[in-house]
């Protein structure tokens, strides 16, 4: 190497070091600021956000845009909640500054044609660094950060068109007349309404902005968080003075119900399903839902609602079933029989195993799995070819220790022995938090050659150079679960590195191939995606395909004996594919929700699906109950041919 090359290398290393140091300092201030925001220390948070902003403005502009966007939204939330609304609006305006020429041209064209009723709807994914969109012949994708929808009313028809930084999409007609009628009737009311506050944005949430364009060239913008603004009231103003509610998620659900909140609910379906189908008149396969069985309902004690520090009245959640033989089934679910390990050193969530010998009509507990001082959850049970059963779950001490233990039973679930740990991450108290760096939701299959293979959600790659907040990983055991091989990352995208794929469920299909379903939180708002594989080991790269049908969070998959696929999720919707995932149709929902999913997503959650007969399926859900927590309910349904 010549002296010139040595000097250039040293200069490059020095420059790279400055960038790395600047980015490291920026990340530290951003992390501390968001931690302060979570703990309601708003002024301290603002000081860190200010320092992060100064570093970026002085040192380098090479930090990905997603990092900037985290600063703008978090700084805005801290300022608003800290009482400085002027500063909050400054942060928010920077966050929503992206402009689209094609969209502006279309608005001008529509107004020149006399269109009076139109508005734009912008969706800002928290921390998004952009979604690759391949346009034209070039080898590199265009990165889109913000999707902007233009919706307008023309001759009693509602039109919708999507725009982003890469291109404009085809305009479509929303066939449901309710949206058009509501918009025309209440537009003046919605323009004049005020949003009471910008609530602190949760990790999986999104920011939204609506802008109403009026005939006199006025523009009224409404900016809000889907989870916390525009929701029906939960507490009175007097109740909100209670210090115990301050800073809790419930506080942010206390806004007044407005016409704007009702309108927001109406536009969710056409927006969410824009690129697939917004035709609500399509024929749907019939599922007739019938008898409901309660598998477990823990006793309610007093008037306490369950919290992370006190599990009283938690009830039972996250149930998974396993068919052993004709009419005999096992159920594994999470129960809280103590206040939790934070209040009781020997406490923690436990896994109960129940058995049914009459094809799911009645259930009786037969065993309990505990891990002293830890929370057990996310149980999944698998019947092996030798007749034994393996149960995989998560065992955690939050922000301190994360494990995926495997238990085995040789007597049909009456007793269990721990045989291995799939993956783990160990640290000191609090060391693995902000954000969490855990492992969760294991799902084991036995492959054709007898090996066991597991999919699970993995946050450990947050410490990698790419800082992937969560990926779906796969490991394989060649000794019946006693040990596990090397990890393979199955769902992730380094270009799209603030997405959070998780909650994996997979199955072998009748055609011999495999399918994997999962949620993608973060950038995708917990929408459900899927991938297929010829052998269960070779999977396509990237984040996979979007699964239409209004699925969101905690998906579960059933591969029926006739080849059809059935998927559900926390929304309670049912999606059916007759052709191994090429097309999906919606079916009747099994559970009626009292309020919108966006208002309360915990009404019936962590559902799973099973086949009980040639055309008979069942859904098992954690159903919200009066008095606090959930119970486990099973509902049978008949699928049409």
Biggest sheet character: 6 strands, antiparallel
Strand content: 25-35%
- Poorly predicted ranges (pLDDT <50, ≥5 residues)? 1-19, 125-141, 196-205, 231-235, 245-256, 276-282
Which structural category fits the helices and strands? alpha+beta
Distance between the termini: 73 Å
Notable characteristics:
3 domains, 6-stranded antiparallel beta sheet, 4-stranded antiparallel beta sheet, alpha+beta, 641 residues, 34% strand, disordered N terminus, Neuraminidase
Kindly summarize this structure in a few lines.
This protein is of the alpha+beta class.
Question: How would you portray this structure in words?
Answer:
It is a single chain. The chain is an alpha+beta fold. The chain has three domains: 93 residues, no CATH class; 172 residues, no CATH class; 353 residues, Neuraminidase. Helix content is 19%, strand content 34%. It has seven helices and 32 strands. The N terminus is likely disordered.
Write the layout of secondary structure elements.
Elements: H1 3-38, H2 42-59, H3 65-81, H4 85-95, H5 101-112, E1 117-125, E2 131-133, E3 142-144, E4 146-154, E5 157-163, E6 172-174, H6 177-192, E7 206-213, E8 219-225, H7 259-272, E9 287-296, E10 316-325, E11 328-335, E12 350-356, E13 364-369, E14 375-383, E15 389-397, E16 401-409, E17 417-426, E18 439-446, E19 452-458, E20 471-477, E21 488-491, E22 500-508, E23 514-521, E24 527-533, E25 545-546, E26 556-559, E27 565-568, E28 574-577, E29 585-587, E30 604-611, E31 616-624, E32 630-639
Helix pairs in contact: 1-2, 1-3, 2-3, 3-4, 6-7
